[in-house]
């Protein structure tokens, strides 16, 4: 009985839509949390937020996983809403998401000590892609979201604050040169 009710709930498009929004929000929240310690330390003090520094890699990997789950659910929702339309025909609608997911995967797969040692200086270059991601994620939200929920607004506010801090960080570097 419980399994049947759960299956009906999971097949419900509204549940999938809500779940997808929550997962996307978790992906953005955990991603932004990984950005704040380094930027905060460089801008305001040398102490930073120690707890976030300690678990930054794990939080980043969780963010990558949330992003992957969001991508899978987005494709599933697209197939539920348009079962007659082949997925590759609708590929151009996924450009912003695929771009963000590719960067998330690159960052997530290389967020470990072994890859840091293996890639050396290139690891730092690769992980500088993280500063492009807030702009791309904001673009993804603007392009893809038709109905702005509380989750969407929360994500957008967090991305605007992350973009603002990144701009401050780079302007501080430029003007103190």
Would you kindly provide a written description of the structure presented here, covering whatever features stand out?
- This protein has about 180 residues and is mainly α.
- The protein has one domain (about 15-175).
- The chain has helices spanning about 1-10, 15-45, 50-55, 55-80, 95-110, 115-120, 120-125, 135-145, 150-175.
- The mean pLDDT is about 80.
Please outline the major beta sheet.
Answer: none
- State the end-to-end distance: 67 Å
Q: How much helicity do the residues have? A: over 70%
The proportion of residues in beta strands is under 5%
Quickly give the structural class: mainly alpha
The average pLDDT score comes to: 82
Choose one word for the global shape.
globular
- Following the backbone from N to C, one meets helices and strands in this order, namely HHHHHHHHH
Total domain count: 1
Quaternary class: single chain
Radius of gyration: 18 Å
Counted beta strands:
0
* Unreliable residue stretches: none
Q: How many helices?
A: 9
Task: Describe the protein's topology.
Elements lengths: L1 H10 L1 H31 L6 H5 L1 H26 L13 H15 L3 H7 L1 H7 L5 H12 L5 H26 L2
Overview in brief:
By secondary structure, the chain is mainly α. It has helices at residues 2-11, 13-43, 50-54, 56-81, 95-109, 113-119, 121-127, 133-144, 150-175. It starts with a helix and ends with a helix.
